[in-house]
UniProtKB/TrEMBL annotation:
Family matches, as InterPro entries: Metal_Hydrolase (IPR032466), Uronate_isomerase (IPR003766)
Superkingdom, natural source: Bacteria
Reaction equations catalysed: D-glucuronate = D-fructuronate
Protein name as annotated: Uronate isomerase
Start and end residues of each stretch annotated as Disordered: 378-444
């Protein structure tokens, strides 16, 4: 058995000349409260405060980065607890899923996923050995026993990790009832803020687009069968989110194109998409105009506009058709760029007093190539660092404290400016840039 003892300096620079300074800097912030501006924990999880169940259902099956590496190693998704849509094949039980991870533990060497797991297993659950085929059952039992204790319930973990602010990711049609209930609960002292995520309404090529429009129309009471109606409904729901404490929107798109269409062309594509499939060119043009319109809304209502371009969702169509989305095949599109595609938005709103944009990337070279120069000119667009899409910072000695809640609701697309008291109180720098490595365990 190999001892599990994560080194306290494991994410600090190895250079002796800078290591001491890095230790000092880390020591100055390691006990600070967590202000988490982006994540995918369901607010109802904190509202209900029920014990987490099976360890594999918490730590493996919902995590598409864990699924990705295990699938690449030849482990079928069914053996990782992912149920096929047709129900045609059996799904492994939690203990079997954990055995699959333990027997493939070495494939995570050198990855951010391994850093997360090592710290969680050691610091949160108290495991003393690396997972292996030999100790898989014993560790599974230890994890299950720990999760059954009151100290591992969601609210207890929220307090243990000193989380002050937790921003969730929410569909515009959400009633945000859980957020309101938490806000009004005198026994809960944290702040859980919704974040407006409207991706499914921007791209008429997405299979759920028509259904999303119908649901939004029902919730808003506005006819979304027209393009103008859709925009009005989205504005209405943004106001609903702001009333519930939202300070930001969040958008993940294949590219950052933002050229606005003539209203007549947007209306034409909208109607065509309601009738059936539209061309790839029309779908992209519609998506670009929707991104522009979302920037216009951000300038009007003050919600910080978080943008994650450059991800190709559901790369392997057979897997999508059999298992659905978020099972490991969202892949980076490194050809994505910022300078020219975002020009329409920045020309229109880049100096607007209430517009703020946060840019993220899966390509670290984009910082110096494009994002830095953009932030160097536009006062409403600047870089904002993110380590991943988890609701918590990476749990390492060089970052912050871990939490099992990271995986409770993360099978979807994630940091940006810290949510403040008001969406209309802009920070000194108003466009942030964040890098999420393609191998990060928590990217958007």
């Amino acid at each position: 058995m190999t001892s599990l003892a994560p080194h306290p300096d494991r994410l600090l620079p190895a250079d002796p000349a800078t290591l001491d300074l890095a230790r000092q800097l880390y020591a100055s912030v390691k006990d600070a409260p967590i202000l988490s501006p982006h994540g995918h924990v369901d607010a109802e999880l904190l509202l209900d405060d029920q014990p987490f169940g099976d360890p594999a259902a918490l730590l493996i099956t919902p995590d598409h980065y864990v699924l990705r590496l295990l699938h690449a190693s030849g482990v079928p998704l069914e053996q990782l607890g992912v149920a096929p849509r047709d129900g045609a094949s059996a799904v492994a039980e939690g203990r079997e899923v954990w055995r699959a991870l333990a027997s493939h533990w070495d494939v995570f060497l050198g990855t951010p996923v391994r850093y997360w797991f090592e710290t969680e297993l050691h610091d949160v659950f108290g495991l003393a050995e690396h997972p292996s085929a030999a100790n898989a059952d014993a560790q599974y039992d230890q994890l299950a026993a720990a999760l059954a204790t009151p100290s591992m319930r969601p609210r207890a973990l929220f307090e243990r990790f000193r989380i002050e602010v937790l921003a969730t990711t929410d569909d515009p049609a959400s009633d945000l009832a859980a957020h309101a209930a938490l806000r009004d609960d005198p026994s809960f002292t944290g702040r859980v803020l919704p974040t407006f995520r409207a991706d499914s309404y921007y791209d008429p090529a997405r299979p759920e687009w028509r259904e999303s429009l119908s649901r939004l129309g029902e919730v808003s009471g506005i006819d979304t069968t027209t393009h103008a109606g859709l925009l009005e409904a989205l504005r209405s729901r943004r106001e609903h989110f702001i009333r519930h404490g939202a300070t930001a929107s969040d958008t993940g798109v294949p590219d950052a194109g933002s050229e606005p269409l003539d209203p007549a062309d947007a209306a034409r594509i909208h109607q065509a998409a309601l009738r059936g499939p539209v061309s790839a060119a029309d779908a992209a043009a519609y998506r670009h105009t929707m991104l522009f319109e979302s920037a216009r809304m951000a300038a009007d209502d003050g919600l910080v506009m978080q943008l994650h371009p450059g991800i190709l969702r559901n790369h392997h169509r057979p897997t999508l058709e059999r298992f659905g989305p978020d099972v490991g095949h969202d892949l980076p599109l490194i050809r994505s760029s910022y300078t020219e595609p975002l020009r329409p938005i920045l020309e229109a709103f880049g100096t607007h007093p209430t517009f703020r944009m946060v840019l993220f990337t899966v390509d670290e070279t984009a910082f110096t190539r494009e994002i830095g120069p953009l932030a160097g000119f536009y006062p409403r667009c600047s870089p904002g660092r993110r380590g991943g899409s988890s609701t918590l910072p990476p749990p390492s000695a060089a970052t912050a404290r871990p939490s099992p809640t990271r995986s409770a609701s993360r099978r979807r697309p994630g940091s940006s400016t810290t949510p403040g008291p008001s969406a209309r109180s802009p920070p000194a720098t108003t466009c942030r840039v964040g890098w999420t490595p393609a191998t990060s365990p928590r990217s958007s």
